[in-house]
Task: structure prediction
Amino acid sequence: MKFLKFILFPLVPVYLLVIKLRNLFFDKKIFKSKSVNAKIISVGNITIGGSGKTPLVIYLSELLKSSDKNVGVLSRGYGRKSKGYKLVSDGNEIFTSVQDSGDEIYHTVLECKIPAAVCEDRVLGAEKLISETGVDNIVLDDAFQHRWVKRDIDIVIIAQRFLLSDEFWVDNLLPAGDLREPYSALTRADVIILNRKFADKQDIPDKKKKFFANKNIFTAYYKAISFVDIVKKDEYKLEEFKGQKSLVVSGVANPVSFLNVLSQNHVDISNKLIFKDHKKYTFREVQRIRKSFYATNSHSVVTTEKDAVKLMNFAKEFDDIDIFFLKIKLELDDAESFNKIIYNE
Result:
């Protein structure tokens, strides 16, 4: 991978020029953001993968729902097989499969039970979601770079682990690094959340502090809640898995945090299958999981909630295996102040 990034490094100035021109056109109103008939809260990042957008989308959706807001979620539907606009759910019924909607929004719908849709054209998607479901608040998923929809609040979430990295092939612009935009793009953000996941809180590196000056900065973390049987939906306390030898299955961008929290809860993670992010599980992978499970004499299979929404489609193939996902929840260190911004108090 580093060799490929090295080969592609000469393209970084070209990429930078393109995104700077695009943002300039929006700033100068040559490209115009369009308002829709709903409050828009955008959730995005400046890096590729693993920042915690989906847990934040779920946090915001549940927050607004609990205050009796008619909230929905709109996503591009990364990795889906379908194209165009798809109504994923009206809040009561789910109309698509995880393959046609994408794992992240399907996960959100299962968790929050709210209206949701996917569409590459966010303006069209927002307008159709509003007309079909009557939502008046929309959480726009992965939309910091998608400026065609005018937003009321622009939230950027950044993984603390990424922020602390000074590795050249990580802390650099695409295609040589993992940055979608330079840190200077954070001037557009109304709120910045630093997600430490399961790690301790650390200070922003001195050389990067200037990009966070005069911003609403919040810190967030993940709280492990329980293990849930993906077929039966039965829920188990974390302590019940202490000392258990499990086969760990993960298909997320940065599985390090997932593996760490399992270790912290004394789950044996020596046996694991790590797939690429947004893994599209097929019968072949399911057979591989089954084979590894029996070969390692594991007591169970433990996976992430994002993987679980895809693996549950193979309930029949797993009828002789106990398979669970780790249920986590995003928490904010100063939730009261953050919530006031969301409520415009």
